[in-house]
Design brief:
- With about 170 residues, the chain is α/β, with parallel strands linked by helices.
- Helix content is about 55%, strand content about 15%.
- It has nine helices and five strands, in the order βαβαααβαβαααβα.
- It has a five-stranded parallel sheet, sandwiched between helices.
- The chain is globular.
- The chain binds shikimate-3-phosphate.
- Shikimate-3-phosphate binds next to loops.
């Protein structure tokens, strides 16, 4: 099995979809933010505060090199900016979870842990800036994706089923 690499904007539901995919397939899951947090023994938010975004991007690059070399048969969910690593397409089948900006923000705000979800994401502090970032990134996400899943108004389970079906064509 080739790796599946999930990309998409903050809060689009990469983690939730990943958890459903592993329930319904033989994949196991890894998350690039989790890997970085355990490498540094710090939360992403703290890494941004103490060492800055450029340092965080360097850690993403280190993770991308390790993933390409050493990881197989795995569903990899990523932070919203991970797609910029040079070797993304070499890591696995790239799957974009796509949704309009307003729906993504609505999804986060409707979550029981909304405050925590917003707080842990430094780049969502300012929604105007976050929207600009979304508009800049969306065409770049689309250009890299082998598979696109529109997640708007769909459950994580529905998305996971669609993902597994579409990914088969690329295996
Ligand atoms: C980021 C997204 C975050 C995390 C970091 C930077 C981004 O992950 O990697 O705060 O640049 O979009 P999520 O997409 O899981 O929120």
């Amino acid at each position: 099995m080739k790796n599946i690499i999930l990309i998409g904007f903050m809060g689009v539901g990469k983690g939730s979809v990943a958890r459903e995919v592993i329930k319904h397939s033989d994949y196991i899951a890894l998350d690039t933010d989790d890997l970085i947090e355990s490498m540094e023994n710090k939360r992403v938010k703290k890494i941004f505060e103490e060492s800055g975004e450029a340092y965080f991007r360097k850690l993403e690059k280190d993770v991308s090199i390790w993933l390409e070399k050493s990881v197989k048969n795995t569903l990899i969910s990523t932070g919203g900016g991970f797609y910029k690593v040079e070797n993304l397409k070499k890591i696995g089948i790239v799957v974009l979870l796509d949704s309009p900006f307003d729906k993504i923000i609505k999804r986060i705000k409707n979550h029981p842990n909304a405050v925590k979800k917003l707080k842990k994401r430094p780049l969502l502090n300012d929604l105007e800036k976050a929207k600009e970032l979304y508009n800049q990134r969306r065409p770049e996400y689309l250009a890299l994706a082998d598979v696109v899943i529109d997640v708007t108004n769909k459950s994580a389970l529905e998305c996971s089923k669609e993902l597994l079906k579409k990914v088969k064509k690329h295996a």
